[in-house]
Each structure stands twice: as C-alpha cells, then as structure tokens.
Amino acid sequence: MSDPASDPNVRETPAGKATGDRTDTLLQTDGLVKRFGGFTATDSVDFSVDEGELRCLIGPNGAGKSTLLKLIVGTLEPTAGHVYYDGQEITDMEPNERVQSGISMKFQVPSVYGELSVRENARLPVQQLADGAERRRRVDEAIENAGLAGYEDVQASTLSHGQQQQLEIGMAASLDPDLLLLDEPVAGLSVDERTEIAERIRRLNREEGIAFVVIEHDTDFVGEIADSVTVLHRGDVFREGSIEEIEDDPEVRRIYLGGEQ
Ligand SMILES: Nc1ncnc2c1ncn2[C@@H]1O[C@H](COP(=O)(O)OP(=O)(O)OP(=O)(O)O)[C@@H](O)[C@H]1O
C-alpha cells in the first residue's frame, strides 16, 4: 500500500487519517448515495468502522443495509459520495483490489460449491497465491476457522446449512482481511448453529484482530457479538450506539414495530 502522505493523488479521509496523525478509523463512508433508477437505496450515508471493531448493521427490510456493504466492497458503484479505507480513498477501486487491500465479504446468498469438497472450496479464495506453502497454510486455517477439521474430503452439499455458512466465513477470513463484511450470516440457522457462529466471529475478532460489519435482524444475536450498532432506516443512518442504547430507543422501536418503513 502506498504512503498516502506522499501521494498527491490520494485523497485523505475526512477524519484526517491519511496524514501522520493516524486515528484508528479503518473504514469511512462520506455522503454515500446509491440510486437505482429513481429509487434512492442509500441516501448520503456517513458510516465508519474502527480498527478491530465489531459493528452490527440493523434496520427494517429495504433500509439499504446490503446495498451499503456492496458499495463498501465495490460490487456496486455509488451514484455519489466517497469510501475511504485505511486512510485512502477507494471509491473507484475494483473489488479485487479492495480484497487485496484487506476488505473481504461473505454475501447473503451462499457461495459454497456443493459438488466440491470442503478442502476444494477452501482453496478457491487463495488459489492466486503463488507461494504453495502459504496457500496450504491458508486452506488449513480456513478449515480450522470454520470448525471443519476432519471434514476436509466431505462434499460441501452434505454439510448442514450452518456448517456451510461457517465454511464461507472461514474462506472469507482466509484472505487475511482487516475488515470482514457479513450479510446475515445466521439467517435460517438453529439456536445452536447461531451460537457457534457467534463464537467463531468473536474469536476471529479477538484473536486475529479482524474488524467486522455484520448485518443481522435478531437483536439477541447482535447483543451477543456487537461492540456497537448502526441502525439504517430509509437509506440513511438513523441511530448509532451500544445494543442497550439501541434497544431502549423508542424511535428505533417505532420504525421496527410501527410498521413504518
Ligand atoms: N439492483 C437493484 N435494483 C433496484 N432496486 C434495488 C436493487 N438492489 C436493491 N434495491 C432496492 O434498494 C432497497 C434497499 O435494498 P437492500 O437490499 O440494500 O435492503 P436491506 O436493508 O439489505 O434489506 P433486507 O433486510 O430485506 O435484506 C430495497 O428497496 C431494494 O428493493
């Protein structure tokens, strides 16, 4: 990564991180707008994540949560606004470059290949690595992080839905990210599977120092894992705070329970 302070083409973050006075802001969006035709999915979103922070993103259906993550990982282009990561503007950076810079994402739609084995799946994200020993280490680490040691040769389609989600999280983590974005990683899972994934996420956060943004609807799960919570509503940040502050906020209750979306 180039030194932003010496590169005149690199735009500094609004927080001024790109200079010598580093803050611990890892990701920041500034006025991020995404329109689909005449519909505004995200409306001037200012959102930030600190290094090593575990932030959950909640909000009613259609609030713009998935859209915001796709804008951060670069699979959608913003209509307006900026994205900064580790002190540099990445708004125009290709998704694969963002991955190399340390942003990884597990999408809402499962992307494990059922006809491949666990090990073959785990090889996919790291197949570009030239160093064979490093590649094998990352594959083993992905399987270990997914809690699937002993399942290496099992066909992925025979895994439970929870194990497949864990495999995907392990694969996303094997890219050695500083920021991992997870879109509803426990949707449709049993209580036990959710607990296991909560532990997995917490361990990656504490032991590997990976910062997370996790989209999740279930506030019990959010309470188990989150350092902080952002509520998105009608495409913009509505509230930010601890899970206790968010749960006690009557306006948040109103947008969830009042049927207003
Ligand atoms: N490719 C697209 N084309 C048109 N509209 C879209 C597109 N993607 C998303 N939208 C719309 O943008 C809005 C926000 O969608 P998004 O998926 O970001 O919401 P969300 O908060 O993640 O919702 P959910 O909790 O239901 O997954 C929705 O009204 C959705 O229909």
TrEMBL record:
<keyword id="KW-0547">Nucleotide-binding</keyword>
<dbReference type="InterPro" id="IPR051120">
    <property type="entry name" value="ABC_AA/LPS_Transport"/>
</dbReference>
<dbReference type="InterPro" id="IPR003593">
    <property type="entry name" value="AAA+_ATPase"/>
</dbReference>
<dbReference type="GO" id="GO:0005524">
    <property type="term" value="F:ATP binding"/>
</dbReference>
<dbReference type="Pfam" id="PF00005">
    <property type="entry name" value="ABC_tran"/>
</dbReference>
<dbReference type="InterPro" id="IPR027417">
    <property type="entry name" value="P-loop_NTPase"/>
</dbReference>
<dbReference type="GO" id="GO:0016887">
    <property type="term" value="F:ATP hydrolysis activity"/>
</dbReference>
<feature type="region of interest" description="Disordered">
    <location>
        <begin position="1"/>
        <end position="23"/>
    </location>
</feature>
<feature type="domain" description="ABC transporter">
    <location>
        <begin position="27"/>
        <end position="259"/>
    </location>
</feature>
<keyword id="KW-0813">Transport</keyword>
<dbReference type="InterPro" id="IPR003439">
    <property type="entry name" value="ABC_transporter-like_ATP-bd"/>
</dbReference>
<protein>
    <submittedName>
        <fullName>ABC transporter ATP-binding protein</fullName>
    </submittedName>
</protein>
<dbReference type="GO" id="GO:0005886">
    <property type="term" value="C:plasma membrane"/>
</dbReference>
<keyword id="KW-0067">ATP-binding</keyword>
